[in-house]
From TrEMBL:
SMART domains: HRDC, RQC. The keyword Nucleotide-binding applies. This is DNA 3'-5' helicase. Its EC number is 5.6.2.4. One of its GO terms (molecular function) is nucleic acid binding.
Amino acid sequence: MEYVELKTCYREYILKYFGEKMIRNYCGYCENCKKEKNIKDFSLEAKKIISGVGRAKESLGISTLANMLMGKADTKMLNKGLDKISTFGIMKENKQEWIESFINYMISEKYLVQSAGSFPVLKLGEKYKDILNGNIKVIRKEDEKIDFDYYENDLFKELNSLRKEISKQENIAPYIIFSDMTLIEMAEKKPRNRWDMLKIKGIGNQKFKSYGERFLERINNYCMEERL
């Protein structure tokens, strides 16, 4: 009965029932999500970003890719000849902040992959062909963005550093551990125990079992040092 009368995303409800969480609280496809007024199809933008990653031969980080797509050419970009490829400037109507936020979203959804290491670059994810072929639509809230200045946040840096340590130890990409969006929410909400951690989007029981305690320890140590 609860499922039938549900007013929010059906997919989120099902995932929560089985102990998992979505990166966002809507899927864009179920009947309830379709009633949302500010849901938009961003498949074209996703295709442009995927094309940019491919044309650049999977060699660029998030900021450099965003600059290339906007048509901003610095010396490094000119030396690489990125101003000559077909995707240079194809998103000049978009702001850099929005493009970078959207790229992070695409990483969280596994459309793109961010490599490990000191200078991570973007790779094509397992579902990129489905987007290019039109088999998957990229549905997102039109006004969805990350306002939190996470690159300059000390706790985010701590959590990101821990994620890099684990990725090297386990020889896996950082996004497999937790997405940037999940780290951002951790840094914002500062969960102090298992129950609070499980409220973070992108963390289910299995993720917590694998990595939760280590991230909780880092958060609690940070809060103690900062007297929060």
